[in-house]
Amino acid sequence: YKGEQFIAVACGGNFQLNSCTVTGPVNGTNTGGTFQSTGSMTVPASTTTQLNVTGSGFTVNSNLVINTASGLLRNNNVANVTAGDKTFTGDITNSVGATWTEDGSGWTRVLNSNDFLNQGTLNLPGGLNWNQNSGTNTLTNTGTINKTSGGTFTANNISSVTNNGTIAIASGGGTFQATSTAYSGTGTATVVSGGLMRLNSCTITGPINGVTSGTGGFDSIGTLTVGAGGASLNVTGNGFTLNGSKAGTPMLTNNA
């Protein structure tokens, strides 16, 4: 599918890319219909496939196979990932001004050499696991990640979680958990009542910034390891809670 034309899907309509290799932009508008991928959607090497679907957006109802030799899937408008376990291979960017929303029913994304860059809005309702399977997998945020609707989102054993934007855990939003990964970044996690930011057996470097209020919390469990160059805890409100142990010889400084 080369996708240079504009596809308009109205209420009750269905445009489907079923096990397609997509080499061009996916351009269209969705006004209450279904605009989706099924089976496996493939992006070839040295290709950037852009999702440009406005309205209700594009539905990822498939595995994503993005060639790791400079392949990229870039969402520029609205993308929604459906229920069910899925495998994501290769790099994904959610652009400035774009929205990527995951299903929050406790499913798993199996990651293979996947660098997910969020420059826009990444919505994580309910429970979801992003699990490292093979290669180097990262989550980098320069926009806003919204954790809502209870449950736990876990970035599990991926190489790094870097927050240079905002992680916002809403009232009753549940837990954003980084597990067995390197956590860093100049951004801030904001946590209100019913929310929790948790570092589970992580290595931290640089500033760890947070703002908590009400019963919102920011804590660590397992062993919190301070990486090269040290780390500083800058969590205001209820502060940072060290529930496990601390390891590593570099300095850990508490500033709040």
Describe what this molecule looks like in 3D.
With 256 residues, the chain is mostly beta strands. The chain is built from no helices and 30 strands. It has a 30-stranded parallel β-sheet that branches. The radius of gyration is 19 Å and the shape is elongated. The termini are far apart.
What is the tally of helical segments?
A: 0
Question: What is the percent of helical residues?
Answer: under 10%
In N-to-C order, the SSE pattern is EEEEEEEEEEEEEEEEEEEEEEEEEEEEEE
What is the residue-mean pLDDT, rounded to a whole number? 97
User: Strand pairing plus helix content: what structural class?
Assistant: mainly beta
Q: What profile does the largest beta sheet have?
A: 30 strands, parallel
Unreliable segments of 5+ consecutive residues: none
The amount of beta strand, in percent, is over 45%
Span between termini:
54 Å
User: Cα-atom Rg, whole angstroms?
Assistant: 19 Å
Shape descriptor reads: elongated
Number of strands: 30
